[in-house]
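Worked example (supplementary).
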Amino acid sequence: MAETPYEVLGVAKTAGADEIRKAYRKLAKQLHPDLNPGKPEAEARFKSVSAAYDLLSDPEKRARYDRGEIDESGAERPRYSYRPHAEGAQGRKYAPQGEMNVEDLEDLFAMFGQRASGQRGRPGGAGQGGFRVPGQDSLYSLTVGFVEAAAGGRQRLSLAPDQWLDVTIPAGIADGQVLRLKGKGQPGFGGGEPGDALIEVHVAPHPLFRRDGDDIRVELPVSLAEAVLGARVTVPTVTGPVTMTIPKGSDSGAQLRLRGKGMQKKGHEGDQYVTLKVVIGEAGDAELAQFLEGWAAKHPGDPRRGMGAP
Amino acid sequence: MTGLDDLLGRFAGLERAELVRWVENRWVLPDDEGGRWVFREVDIARVELILHVRHEFAVGDDAMELMLGLLDQVYSLRRQMGRLAAALEAQPAEVQAAIKRALAAHG
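After joint prediction of all chains, the assembly is encoded as:
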């Protein structure tokens, strides 16, 4: 350990300012480099005496040195922060006698029990400690069809051979939405409330229907004759097939709306949009081709007029 | 290993008799190794804390006794809280979520 500045000056730790100044002057005279030419150890000693006096002659520095905040050279010392030690394993020995031992969970439970009965003005419930814990929530996943998600319905979720949950699927439920069934989770402990069942609902995609917000979009193949002459056709919807009129001379890609046939949310049902898709298919036979050759010659219209030069 | 003399060297403003009294008062609890006091990091930090408080606030022995008693209770509670928090962190996510909800509801 380095010499303390008190030792360097040869004074007691309790020495007063006068005593320190006297000791310094005496040593400084003895060791001054001008009086000791060619004696490097005297010069080194002189430096440390000056440094020691510099520190001890300043009451502020001296106090900080005495408290261990700075070292002999006046440099800051790393401070010991008490908190990390106190909260660590070493700090245990300073814990008050009779500290609650959490290893013994009864103590902790008793504490909870006091709170529960004190705050709610109810007896502590089951168990000696009056410890009451709500049950955990149970998490389930359920996949429903598109039509069921749009129109609503009921599903039975089986948990065990003799245990199930009846789940009401609200109309218009979105993929990933979570339903909460209050009190259908794990039972509580000591009279605590049961947890809830949380059911994450997944909606399976549909080959015809596509969801667009609260609306449903569907593509409807129609024949050339139906598009040209108009027709009454049957269209699937989430509430069952309906009859729809295709107006005379409908273009492929034309959109027709079936009001209220989208998501069946009570009071604000969405609509179903039907996009016509003219299908030539087998109708494109030789007879039709022959007819159109003659017909086209008499009707030289250009549907791309107005698109401008490519 | 920090003995009594090492500690007195570390804190120039600390008198031997004073430190001995602190130990006798059980303010500082060094380990006893073959009749020799050994100060651990926590003890050194505590000595520094006592020195600092005594100087900064001119705290006398009675008040120091009271302050250390309260301080030890606070740190004891904080340590227990830390252990409880660690136990909660070891629980499955849904248990943690339920506890967080309960804490929010009974805040």
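Two points are worth noting when inspecting this output. The longest strand of chain B covers residues 31-33. The radius of gyration of chain B is 20 Å.
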